[in-house]
Amino acid sequence: MKKSFFLLLLSVVLVSCGSTKSLSKRVMKGYWSLNEITYSEGGEFNVTLFNDASKACFEASTWRFIPNNNTGIYTLSGMDCDSSERHFVFTIDEVDKTSGLYDFLLKPTNEKHKSETNKGFRVKLAHLSETNMQWQQTVMLDGSPFTIYMNFTKINE
């Protein structure tokens, strides 16, 4: 009896953890606009995001997430910005089982935009709802943590 109860409890825990991850991936699926980028510190900073372009090019960029194969595409916006499609893959690592939010690794796959070291970029999924999403990327600036906040709005599925 105790063994059956333990197996049942273990099954419920495993199913509930998996369903949170699928729910987050379902919500993330579709088209998003990266409409605002802010920093943890005040002032003007010359930041190149994802070894690709400036904040000005990323604001108003369009992103598509295809969670069933962990891929996506983004297109930059702005007059002096290269607007070719950038393809990427993302690997999700669960962080908080209560909220279901994740850290993930975003890795460019275009030859044109892939870095020489073929590295990815760690980003924290800080907020996710049906209409809004926020990423946080923490980097070091003069030996101290510096956080970049990327705020998205859902366009459609």
From TrEMBL:
Domain of life assignment: Bacteria
Annotated keywords: Signal
Keyword match Signal: yes
Signal peptide: 1-18
Name the record gives this protein: Lipocalin
